[in-house]
Structure formats: structure tokens, C-alpha cells
Design brief:
Number of strands: 19
Distance between the termini: 41 Å
Helix content: 40-55%
Strand content: 5-15%
Largest sheet: 5 strands, parallel
Low-confidence stretches: none
Radius of gyration: 36 Å
């Protein structure tokens, strides 16, 4: 990612955009923080927020006409926040603060003509910036409405503390203006507070800079009646005079001066309708607190609200994009940052939720690809998933054939490697149903290549897709029927010339399988993230469920904004703990049992203890209570693929291709519950343990624990070393624990 790309990307995340009220305020008062403090009855702290931004805060807080209310998001949920009343309460009840400390002197002098709100605020702003300011006026506070006794005097005293020299009672004439122009580096005219003859050649100031036709002379707009806009003119003049005296551009980068439109989006979906607190005589403490509580503390975070991954890392996409850029470009891959990059499920939910379509999936996938290509991706991040993909594509699991007795195929059933691993009986029954009703339906048992794509290994994905394409073409390029939503999406991406349809569209067209008995029940539909942008697929499922007499409920996050189950993007492999947290969020999305059409969604939800079924459990029922079926472990999943292939070859094609058993497969062992759980958590397969036990038996090299009598042995078949704690029992072995690591230990078995 280039820095220009980063800047463009960061600009699409609007979380750091100003709240609409702050953007609409001519002085950009931080109303959000102010209301938060007022709601906590922290009047003094709230006053500090106002005094930090407002010139002459004691005056302006009492005169604020609440221009922000027009853009207040709360206006559509009861009414805008009464900022004017809150500011007045705060001004009257908070502890006064000292005026701001001015910057060191610039050695530049400025004269301000006119003692109205604009002139006073202009003098305040320029004095803060380190200018030597003199204020010339006939009447101080000219045009201001009546204020409580002493309020204006206190602010004028603060003005003098800032270093402003006040010349009041002067008769302002064109001659005084001419002499000041000659003496000073710049002059600012409060047009509403000086005689009209003083504004000759200065009565049409530029709207952006307030500059006039006379060099070094700036003037406010005389027809401005809002106290806040008058104060903003004073600030605008100070900004212009600062630029003028520095000799820099007068116009560049001034888009956010004064009121502007903020891009910040804030949803009102969960906000209750509450009217403003009414008051004819000003607020009491309780009134002020209650009105401030109505502020909804505007922010976006739409993507964070919906994504456990984004919540887990405690920031939002703009920050993550910067972290990923730094990881790629500066530190070139750190463990912590790589984990964050590899923990995105790549599901695309954030892009749909984001008002600006910011895609963390695109950012993280590109980062993974770059890390892989530069050799900075930790091998362990996706190794197990890629080994499992290779196993699914290997000779013991993969298969591509025309239907028995057929020499060509009109269709090709592609169930996907995870459906065959979790529900091989369902795959077998579904294939029989398709052959019976469609005729020449071939079969392909293969991985679609999604793990390679998700891991950022573009070359591996392209190679996998090339192999898959070759097998498909060898069968005559038939129409592909995909049962898995991820396979459907991935195959459409990788095989653009193929005609690919979902199994669910086929069933919707030809009807439910013969003999299926509708089951009246209520289930929550889980849309997998791969179906996010496939409205037809989602509709097909609901039509089939309706035909099965299933009453459907919809989780809040479903359809286009569906939660991921925690498997997508290989999250459950790269960050298992977070993967389970994501699955648990999905499981809590409905009170009813779930029904889904992605087997990994079903299995991930089942891992949380939540009851879930696959649509195949309704179409091709095999047990009385499929919702109670546990998620199969990693070893079982591999065995299911192998046995399915062997069974299909034997029963359908009358071929016996049973592979000769490897020596380690003869090793029989049992596991304690602890060992079984640990093996799943650490991705240690039954075959890994068998290889260790065989090595230990044949070599006799093992350690013994003198206290328990347990043995400890190791074996390193390729790049991972496996350790097993066991004891001989009943002619076999009882495994108590298992470990694995990539370090190579001198003296260990290999």
C-alpha cells in the first residue's frame, strides 16, 4: 500500500469527522464533549470546554442563538439539543476560568476598529495568536443586548490581560483609519460599529478572507446579526491577518472555517424519542442534566457495532488501516499486527454497513497477499488450513467422475470439502436425489480453493483453480451445481466461463425431494456471509423452508448485513479464541434454533452449544434430533472425506480403491477428555499422535515421568514436532496430553 492509497483509504472512514452540530457551529464548539460533561453535572469542566473555543465566553455563552440546532441529529428523535439554554446555565453556575495564555509576540501590530461583538472577538483572537493589538472604538460592547451586571466588564478585563490596548471613546474618522494603516501591519474593521465613512473602499469584503481593496485592511460584513456569526467573523479576520503577515496563501485549506457539512453518520435506530426539557426562566441543575443527557454523543462506528473483530481490537477502520500500513511499510511484519491482519473474516459486512463503503476485507486481504509475497507471513498462521485443503484435494479424498454408467454429464455436483467432511451421508443422499431427478449428474469432490485465497496465497489459489478447471473440462464442462455458498462464490470468481448454479436454485425449480416430510417448527435463518450479495440464493432458501413448513425468524444481523460465523477468512485458525467469540456473537443472535445452508456456519454455531441444523437435515433427514449433533473434530472430518470417497467408488462405480493402510494406522489408542480437548484446540490430528506412538514403540526412545509412570515421546514428520504424553493400557495406549511446535530441538525424534 502506497502512502497516497493510505490517505485515500483513511478519508473514507468518517468516525473522526466532526459531529454535525460541531461542524454547523460557526466557532466549532465541542458540543458533544460539553453535553457529556453537563450530563455528569460537571459544570466546571463543561465550562472549560466552552472557554477553550469561545472568545469572550462569558458574553458569548449568554448570547448563543444555537445555530447548531438546525443540523442536530437529535432533532429527528424528539427535538434538537437546547445548546443555548445549556450554555447560559453553565455560564451562570460554573467556576470562572482565566483567559487563555497568548502565544509569544510575533512582533506584528494590528489595529481593530469598532467595539461591537465582531471587533471584540477579533481583538481576542489576534491577541491569542501573539499579535500586538490595539482596539479603537467609540463604545465598548456596541450593539450588544443587555447582560447581567459585571459580565462584559470581566471579559474586557480578560481582553486586557491578553495584551489588548483599549482606546474607547474615540471619534473614529477616515483620518484615524489612514494613520493606523500606515502605522500597523494590518487593520481590521468591525463594519457594524464604525461610521460608514470609515468603510469607504472597505464595504465589500471577500467572503472567505474578509480582505478589502486596500492592502492590509480587512473588514467584517455589516449586515450580520447573529452574535455567534459575528464572533466567527472576528476569528476569520484573525486567521486572514495571520496568513497575510506570514506571506502565505490567503485561501488554501480554509474549507472548514465557519459552518460546513460534516460527513459523520449517526444512526437513530436505537434512539428513543425524547422531547427537549422545556424552561421559560432558564434551567435548574436537574433540567440541565436531563437536557444534556438527551445528547446521543454522535459517532458512526456502524461497522464496529456489527463486527466482533473490529470491537476486539478496540478501534475503527481508519486506525487499523494506518496500523496495517505501518506494519507493511515500516516494521515489515510484527507478530501482533500480523495477528490483527489475519483475524479479519473477510466477510464484507463492514463495507455494507459503512456509509462510505470502507472494506476492511479488502485492506486485510491485500496485506496478507503482500506479507506472503515478501516472505513476512508467519507460516503457522494458516498452515493447518492449507494442509487440510491439500488433504481434501489429495488422492484419498478428491474425485471427479461422470455418473455411474454415463459417459457425459449435463450437470456436475460440487458439494465442497467442508460439507463432505461434516455431513458425508447428506452429500451422498443429495447426489442420489440429483441423479434420480436430473439424470446425467457427475460428481466432483474437491476444495474450491477458498483457504488459499483467504490466506493471501494468490499463486496457490490460481494453481488450485487451474487444476479444478482442468478436471471440470475433462468432464465436458458441465453446468456446476454448488451446495456450499462459499464454493458458489469462489467458483464464480475463479471459473468465469462456467455456468454455476446453487443446489438450492435447482431444488426450488424441480421441487423438494420425494418422500420428504415437512416439519412444522420455528427456526432462525442464518445467512452465511458468502450469500451477502446473492439475493437470489437467500430467496431460494426461504422458499424451500416455506415449502418445508418452517416458520422463519430473522436475526437483527442477517441478509446483506449477516454476521460471520467465525470460520470465514480462516479466523478460527489464525485466532481461535476470537473465532469462538465471533461464533458466540452469532449464536446469541436468535432465541430459536438456527437453520443455515453453510455447513461451517452450522458447525461453528454448534461449537458454542447453540442448537443448529443444516438445510440438508430437513431435506435428507438421517437422525431424529440433528440440532443436537456436535461439530465433528478435525480428525473425524478427514476420515469422513476418505470414507465417503471409498464408499461412493465401491457402491456406485463398483471400484475398490481402498488404500493400503500406513503402519501408523494400526496403532490403537484412547484419549482422556483433557487430551481430546487439547488436540482439537492445538490442531493435532489422530494420525499425528499415531505417528508419535509408532516412532516411540519402534525406537524405544522416550522419556518417563517417575512420579506418574507416563511416557513422553516426540516425532517431527515435516516441519512440526509433536509430543505425546501416554501410558500403555489394554494392549494399546492411553493418551493424556499432546503438544506441537515448529522449533527444532536437538536430540528429538525425527
Amino acid at each position: 500500500m502506497e502512502q497516497a492509497d493510505l490517505r485515500k483509504l483513511e478519508s473514507r472512514c468518517i468516525q473522526e469527522e466532526a459531529p454535525k452540530c460541531v461542524a454547523a457551529c460557526p466557532l466549532h464548539v465541542d458540543a458533544r464533549t460539553f453535553c457529556s460533561l453537563m450530563a455528569q453535572r460537571r459544570w466546571d469542566k463543561a465550562w472549560q470546554v466552552l472557554a477553550k473555543t469561545m472568545p469572550l465566553p462569558g458574553v458569548l455563552a449568554r448570547l448563543c442563538d444555537g445555530l447548531c440546532k438546525v443540523d442536530c441529529v437529535r432533532k429527528d428523535a424528539g427535538g434538537a439539543i437546547e445548546m443555548g439554554l445549556l450554555e447560559r446555565f453553565c455560564a451562570e453556575n460554573a467556576k470562572p476560568v482565566a483567559p487563555p495564555r497568548p502565544l509569544p509576540s510575533r512582533g506584528k501590530s494590528v489595529a481593530v476598529l469598532g467595539g461591537g461583538m465582531t471587533g471584540l472577538c477579533g481583538a481576542w483572537e489576534m491577541a491569542r495568536r501573539g499579535f500586538d493589538v490595539s482596539l479603537h472604538c467609540t463604545v465598548l460592547g456596541e450593539g450588544l443586548p443587555a447582560l447581567p451586571d459585571g459580565v462584559l466588564d470581566k471579559e474586557l478585563a480578560s481582553l486586557e490581560k491578553l495584551g489588548v490596548v483599549i482606546h474607547s471613546g474615540e471619534n473614529l474618522t477616515p483620518e484615524i483609519l489612514t494613520s493606523l494603516i500606515a502605522e500597523k501591519d494590518a487593520v481590521f474593521i468591525d463594519s457594524a460599529s464604525v461610521p460608514s465613512e470609515c468603510t469607504v473602499d472597505c464595504d465589500d469584503p471577500d467572503s472567505l478572507t474578509l480582505g478589502t481593496t486596500r492592502i492590509g485592511v480587512f473588514a467584517s460584513r455589516a449586515d450580520e446579526h447573529s452574535a455567534v456569526l459575528q464572533a466567527a467573523d472576528g476569528r476569520r479576520a484573525a486567521n486572514s491577518i495571520e496568513r497575510f503577515t506570514q506571506g502565505v496563501s490567503m485561501v488554501t485549506g480554509r474549507e472548514l472555517e465557519g459552518p460546513y457539512a460534516s460527513r459523520l453518520f449517526t444512526s437513530l435506530n436505537t434512539i428513543d424519542w425524547v422531547p427537549p426539557v422545556a424552561s421559560a426562566d432558564g434551567y435548574s441543575e436537574e433540567d440541565a442534566r436531563d437536557e444534556a443527557k438527551r445528547c446521543i454523543q454522535c459517532e458512526c462506528l456502524e461497522c464496529v457495532k456489527g463486527c466482533e473483530y473490529l470491537r476486539h481490537y478496540k478501534y475503527y477502520p481508519k486506525v487499523y488501516a494506518r496500523q496495517i500500513y505501518n506494519n507493511e511499510s515500516i516494521v515489515m511484519g510484527t507478530r501482533q499486527a500480523n495477528t490483527m491482519i489475519n483475524s479479519c473474516t473477510l466477510c464484507g459486512q463492514c463495507e455494507v454497513l459503512c456509509p462510505e463503503n470502507f472494506s476492511m476485507a479488502d485492506v486485510c486481504l491485500e496485506a496478507r497477499q503482500n506479507l506472503v509475497e515478501r516472505g513476512n507471513m508467519p507460516p503457522s498462521a494458516h498452515e493447518f488450513a492449507l494442509r487440510d485443503m491439500a488433504f481434501a484435494d489429495g488422492e484419498r479424498c478428491a474425485l471427479h467422475r461422470h455418473a455411474p454408467g454415463q459417459s457425459s454429464s449435463e450437470y456436475l455436483f460440487f458439494p465442497g470439502c467442508q460439507l463432505t467432511a461434516s455431513d458425508p451421508d447428506g452429500v451422498e443422499t443429495a447426489y442420489a436425489d440429483l441423479r434420480e431427478r436430473l439424470g446425467s449428474v457427475g460428481l466432483m469432490l474437491h476444495c474450491c480453493g477458498a483457504p488459499a485465497e483467504w490466506s493471501g496465497r494468490r499463486t496457490m489459489f490460481e494453481e488450485s483453480m487451474a487444476v479444478l478447471k482442468g478436471k471440470w473440462e475433462s468432464l465436458g464442462s458441465p453446468r456446476i451445481i454448488a451446495a456450499c455458498p462459499t464454493c458458489l462464490k469462489t467458483l464464480r470468481q475463479g471459473l468465469p466461463d462456467a455456468e454455476i448454479v446453487s443446489h438450492w436454485s435447482i431444488l426450488r425449480a424441480i421441487g423438494l425431494p420425494s418422500g420428504v416430510i415437512p416439519k412444522e417448527c420455528t427456526l432462525a435463518v442464518n445467512d452465511p456471509c458468502a450469500a451477502r450479495h446473492d439475493a437470489i440464493l437467500r430467496e431460494d432458501i426461504r422458499v424451500l423452508l416455506d415449502q418445508l413448513q418452517v416458520a422463519m425468524t430473522e436475526p437483527e444481523y442477517n441478509g446483506e448485513i449477516a454476521h460471520c460465523c467465525g470460520y470465514g477468512g480462516l479466523l478460527s485458525e489464525a485466532n481461535p479464541k476470537l473465532g469462538m467469540a465471533v461464533a458466540e456473537v452469532r449464536a446469541r443472535g436468535a432465541d430459536e434454533d438456527f437453520v443455515t445452508y453453510c455447513i461451517m456456519c452450522r458447525d461453528m454455531i454448534a461449537k458454542t452449544g447453540k442448537r443448529a441444523i443444516h438445510v440438508y437435515d430437513l431435506l435428507y433427514p438421517k437422525q431424529d434430533d440433528p440440532g443436537a449433533r456436535p461439530s465433528p473434530g478435525y480428525s473425524v472430518r478427514r476420515e469422513n472425506r476418505v470414507h465417503l470417497r471409498e464408499r461412493l467408488l465401491r457402491d456406485l462405480w463398483r471400484q475398490d480403491e481402498t488404500h493400503a493402510a500406513e503402519p501408523y494406522e494400526a496403532i490403537e489408542f484412547a484419549m482422556t477428555d483433557h487430551a481430546a480437548r487439547i488436540m482439537e484446540e492445538r490442531r493435532i490430528l489422530k494420525s499425528d499422535v499415531q505417528k508419535v506412538l509408532l516412532q516411540a514403540r519402534e525406537s524405544g526412545k522416550r522419556l518417563v515421568n517417575s512420579d506418574t509412570g507416563h511416557f513422553l515421546a516426540s516425532f517431527r514428520p515435516v516441519v512440526v514436532t509433536y509430543w505425546v504424553e501416554y501410558e500403555p493400557k489394554d494392549g494399546g495406549f492411553l493418551v493424556h496430553n499432546a503438544w506441537c511446535h515448529r522449533m527444532k530441538i536437538r536430540g528429538a525424534q525425527s
